Amino acid sequence: MAKIIGGITTAHIPAIGVAMDKGLENEPYYRDLFAIYPPIREWLEEEKPDIAVLFYNDHGLEMFLDKKPTFAIGCAPEYENADEGWGIKPIPPVTGETELSWHIVNHLIENDFDPTVCQDIKVDHGATVPLTLLWPNFTYKGIKVIPISINCERHPMPKPSRSLAFGKAIGDAIRCWDKDSKVVLLGTGGLSHQLDGPRAGILNAEFDNWCMDKIVSDPEAICQYSNVELVEKGGAQMVEIAMWLAMRGCIEGEVEERMRNYVSPISNTAVGVQLLIPKD
């Protein structure tokens, strides 16, 4: 049977992708951020997962305001990237895992979720920046990826509790898949940040660290907040914690926090990184 070996939270800030393209990792502005990732890369190299289930939000590359599914799952054999206007170079195609993707879709529908199925979709920086951070030099080519998008741009968005329940259903689907595969989960997106408007640049480190505590010990506690309350506490893009909740929901029971770091601000965004391992 398939086995979930761990979950990783990470930012997907476009400026990170530009910095990697330009070789700026050791510049003072970025140094502390990029110093976070080598231990996680070492863990991935040691564990060698077969599949990455990647929770992200599409920022308009494929799912714009006129067509915005609440939950969407990639079921394609390959995913391409395209120029989004941020200055990030498009990355080589990402290999999909169609069999597990369809298994997840069927399981979700049998358990009262109705995701949009995407058999031809380009993935944006929400997916590509985490892949290049965790598998630099395009070494993600050795792993199959299932991109799962959650709406974090247009209201109404899924409640935090719904994103957590969505992840729980996906975790159940993975565990009952009858293939001997190792699966790693990626919950992407920043913590407190807002990119425009009068509150642009808002950060709330105290609330961010509380959320990181609760992702480990009590993810349901985050669900006490509505999306509006999350915006009030951490800015318009704080709702991206939906991807973290979905990732954590996939893991049954308790987790060991193997690593944690928090850096701010990078492009006016608080970056939280965690490595969570399921407890036996």
From TrEMBL:
Protein name: Protocatechuate 4,5-dioxygenase beta subunit
Domain Extradiol ring-cleavage dioxygenase class III enzyme subunit B: 8-262
GO MF annotation list: ferrous iron binding; oxidoreductase activity, acting on single donors with incorporation of molecular oxygen, incorporation of two atoms of oxygen
Coiled coil ranges: none
Keywords: Dioxygenase, Oxidoreductase
NCBIfam families: PRK13364.1, PRK13365.1
Gene3D superfamilies listed in its UniProt record: LigB-like
Pfam families xref list: LigB (PF02900)
